[in-house]
Amino acid sequence: MGEPGHGPEGWASAGGDVEQWAGRATTIRVIGTGAMGRGIAQLAAAGGLTVELADIRTRAVMEAAEYVGAMFDRLAAKGRMTAADAEAAKGRLRPVGEPLTPFQDCDLVVEAVREDMETKRELFRSLEKVCPEHTVLATNTSSLPVTAIAAALEDPSRVAGLHFFNPVPLMKLVEVIPGRARPSGSRTRSPTW
Fold first, then answer.
1. Which of 124, 150, 185, 191 falls between 20 and 30 A from 139, CA-CA?
2. For residue 162, what is the enclosing H or E element?
3. Sorting pLDDT into bands at 50, 70 and 90, what band is 179?
4. pLDDT, tens digit, for every residue of 156-166?
């Protein structure tokens, strides 16, 4: 994406409609490859998005890609998706390793690391420096205030909460939590993928 009208500044040009913005997103990076990160990656890849998997543990990234790929094979074997759809979804998984590996066309970063305020703040401060301006930064926190995490950034309006419920691929619910510094006029609605 990377063009005007995308990312936080694009919410207003999309009529303040996050759902409309989300419909144009093509690539996300999931940082953290535990149960939640894997589930988010599976859901997004099945929904047609390119998913970059990242973690500070390189081996964990490869294990997560293999795990999610095996889940798609299992769904195909059970007839819950076609073999072609499973292969296409696996092809959309991109292990990138380090969380701060250079970003190109990433529309959304979803952080799914441990529930520790300083860990999350440090990660988001670093992401703000390396992510293109159009990239939306989201936390999957279940217990920490999104506004407190975002306060560490120069532009806290870039941060939103996307709280997925476990197991992510089975739960049809995402809690969308806007930080207090979201762009004016934006409406919060869950993405359709």
1. 185
2. strand 159-164
3. confident
4. 988 999 999 99
